[in-house]
Design brief:
Helix content is 48%, strand content 14%. By secondary structure, it is an alpha/beta fold. The chain folds into three domains: 209 residues, Rossmann fold (3-Layer(aba) Sandwich), CATH 3.40.50; 92 residues, Tyrosyl-Transfer RNA Synthetase, CATH 1.10.240.10; 73 residues, RNA-binding S4 domain (Structural Genomics Hypothetical 15.5 Kd Protein In mrcA-pckA Intergenic Region, Chain A).
Length: 408
């Protein structure tokens, strides 16, 4: 497949501004950009798909520019139903340092801060050189603005479209950038940039390409879990958690995600699709999805660690885990603090693992209690610091799947 056809097959094309872009993507070499909003200290998994698309184009011979929105992040793209909270310039600067490292892991290319040119534009220049090219009726017709008119929109948010358009113009003039890529919700902002370029440089052929928003099987937002957003920062979402997120993908979505989130070929994905249809219980497609994503974001060693934790929790052989791996595994679990040696029966009640001493004795004598992976049937068993993993952690398993973390 040529590049455009591959992007279509992977489900990465929502809309393009001109059919001529197809030929440019397939046969030429075009400079393009993707903008990233540094409103948080880490990128999330939704950004990952955009960055992968940039890398696909780079691998096909095109020239990517990644924009860290130091200026646009201070304003904020209008949310569907409310104004975004303002972020301080110091916070934005700190966030950019973090997200730049994450961006470079996926796409090794030049990363530019749009604060560099916006900070040099005074209000007179903004209104005379740029504002005069935008008809208010044209701006009101854009979906990002239209959806906010009923609840109200400030002039600050209303101006965001102009800032993004100025970005496209500056990148064209400085880098000959003729293509902007973004999510489908960015279509109005991106095409505003096209209009600005065409009005100032009438002979230029510039383009827009948007990608579909990614959703779960029930139509809800992709990248959210019970514990929150799936981040690319390993301190916020560990490689183990990232792996678990993807291996729990619904059967009806896993092939779509394999196309969008990996570099596997059509032949490899077709084979996984057949395996999914014939042996869905093996979850080979989900496992491969988790493997590829973790390796791209965090590397081979992190993937192997995620597998080690997964296998240990599945088999119950907790003793093979290090303290650091235990912290990954149980990051969002409440921890019971230990101080002294304790009788297991008493401890099960105190840590609220069971409701009574009678229930504790029943679980122990039936062989349903495991301490650091070892079955305990002795009602007089004493837990002490000497048996703790890394001299800190005691992990109690009740039954097959219920884990509890205790810490000295």
């Amino acid at each position: 497949m040529k590049l455009y056809e591959e992007l279509q097959w992977r489900g990465l094309i929502d809309n393009i501004s001109d059919d001529q872009l197809i030929e440019e993507l397939n046969e030429g070499s075009i400079t393009f950009y993707i903008g990233i909003d540094p409103s948080a200290a880490s990128l999330h998994i939704g950004h990952f798909c955009s960055l992968l698309t940039a890398r696909r184009l780079k691998d096909a011979g095109h020239n990517p520019l990644l924009i860290a929105g130091g200026a646009t992040g201070l304003i904020g793209d209008p949310k569907p139903n409310a104004e975004r909270p303002m972020i301080s310039i110091d916070t934005i600067r700190e966030n950019i340092v973090s997200v730049k490292e994450q961006m470079k892991k996926v796409v090794d290319c030049e990363i530019i801060n749009n604060y560099d040119w916006h900070s040099e534009t005074n209000i007179i220049k903004f209104l005379r050189d740029y504002g005069k090219h935008f008809n208010v009726n044209y701006m009101l017709s854009k979906e990002t603005v239209k959806r906010r008119l009923e609840v109200g929109i400030t002039f600050t948010e209303f101006s965001y479209m102009l800032l993004q358009a100025i970005d496209f113009l500056n990148l064209y003039e400085k880098y000959n950038c003729r293509l902007q890529i973004g999510g489908q919700d960015q279509w109005g902002n991106i095409t505003a940039g096209l209009e600005l370029i065409r009005k100032i440089h009438t002979d230029v052929k510039a383009y827009a390409l948007t990608m579909p928003l990614i959703t779960k099987a029930d139509g809800t937002k992709f990248g959210k879990t019970e514990t929150g957003t799936v981040w690319l920062d390993s301190n916020l979402t560990s490689p183990y958690e990232l792996y678990q997120f993807f291996i729990n993908t619904e059967d009806e979505k896993v092939i779509e995600y394999l196309k969008k989130f990996t570099f596997l070929t059509k032949e490899e994905i077709d084979k996984l699709e057949i395996e999914l249809e014939t042996n869905p219980e093996l979850r080979n497609a989900q496992k491969k999805l988790g493997e590829e994503v973790v390796k791209i974001i965090h590397g081979q060693e992190a993937y192997e660690q995620a597998i080690k934790i997964t296998n240990a929790l599945f088999s119950g052989d907790i003793s093979q885990l290090t303290g650091k791996e235990i912290e990954q595994s149980f990051k969002d679990m409440s921890i019971y603090d230990l101080t002294n040696a304790s009788n297991l029966v008493d401890l099960l009640v105190e840590a609220e693992i069971v409701t009574s001493k009678r229930e504790a004795r029943e679980f122990i004598t039936s062989g349903a209690i495991f301490v650091n992976g070892n079955k305990v049937t002795d009602l007089k068993f004493i837990i002490n610091k000497d048996m703790a993993i890394d001299s800190k952690y005691i992990i109690i398993r009740k039954g097959k799947k219920k884990y509890y973390l205790l810490k000295y």
